[in-house]
Amino acid sequence: MVDLATLQQVLDISFDNPPLLEQALVHSSYINENPGFTPTSNERLEFLGDAVLGFVVAEKLYQDFPHFTEGEMTRVRATLVRGDTLARISTAIGLGDYLYLGKGEEASGGRHKPTNLAGALEALIAAIFLDQGLVTARDFVLRLLDEELQKIVSRGVEIDYKSQLQELIQSRQQPTPVYYVVEATGPDHAKRFTVKVRVGNTVLGKGTGRNKRMAETEAARLALEHLSANFT
To answer: Which of the residues 22, 84, 105, 122 is marked catalytic?
Structure first.
């Protein structure tokens, strides 16, 4: 069984209802192999936690950064709540060590899979919200995300999508992204470039812009959105 007492010390949170914490750690593969196990998997908590996380981050940006436009807040929030950011934070607090996994998932490295780690963190946020309320959940989220938020703010709100995409691809041990122009239209003084970004033989995004740099940036942004939507 998972050592819930130690995990609560790591989180610096004492649950009134420990089974909620336990449920946040139960991967669906464990339930498939142990159908009589109580509680159920963390999937419903993950759904709720995603909403709580999004709200807390949106509120933080709205309250603390009044000069941010809607677009800037949207970009920062997307960076903070995307799966790879959450997986990195989960790894930092050792959350993977506490997961309930089926034998097959365990054997395939499930404790280190970004999707499992990100989902467990979202489920954990929901469990804290249900057990302790919004104030404690907010404090927990902001404590975890503070370093990531400071990094974004310190380098400016204009997110470097190309660097983010390269870091993400490298973290997955895949080839370096390659950008190439597929179309250039219009007169010299008003050209529009279309660029695709490819990893191996897979095209991840296509962007357009007034110059190659802008088109590449847009392609990288769309690639990140694609990878986030298909996070596996």
So the answer is: 122
Six-digit token string for 31: 């339930």
**In angstroms, how far is CA 19 from the centroid of its own chain?**
25
Q: Which domains does the chain have, with CATH numbers?
A: 4-154 (1.10.1520.10), 161-229 (3.30.160.20)
Predicted TM-score of the model (pTM): 0.70
Closest CA to 86 of 123, 58, 60, 132: 123
Choose, from 22, 50, 105, 131, the residue flagged as catalytic: 50
Any catalytic annotation for residue 64? no
Residue with tokens 């997955």: 172
Residue type, 51: A
- The predicted-structure confidence for 102-139, as pLDDT tens digits, reads as follows 999 999 999 999 999 999 999 999 999 999 999 999 99
Three-state secondary structure call for residue 58: helix
50 has catalytic annotation: yes
Structure tokens at 179: 């950008």
